[in-house]
Amino acid sequence: MLSIHQILEVTIVIYMTSMVLFLLRVLKGPTIFDRVIAVDALSCDLTVFMALIALYTGRYLIAFPMALIALWAYALDLYVSKYVEFEDIGE
Q: From the CB of residue 42, how many other CB atoms can be counted at a distance below 10 Å?
């Protein structure tokens, strides 16, 4: 039977693999929309990855920056959608 640490290790490897694939899409994405979606997915994966690391190590303070990463991704979505709609980000 698998222990919780073994399950977390496998899950962490899966998330790291998906983060590498999303990073490749960010770098190579044919359009800006592909890149924005890849950054969104990457930020979601990074948030879950940090939660898994916090569970694995037992240091739950690692999980606090997850909110900042989620807000950063939301701000990126707002800026891109504003640019697409109005052709200007503004100030």
A: 21
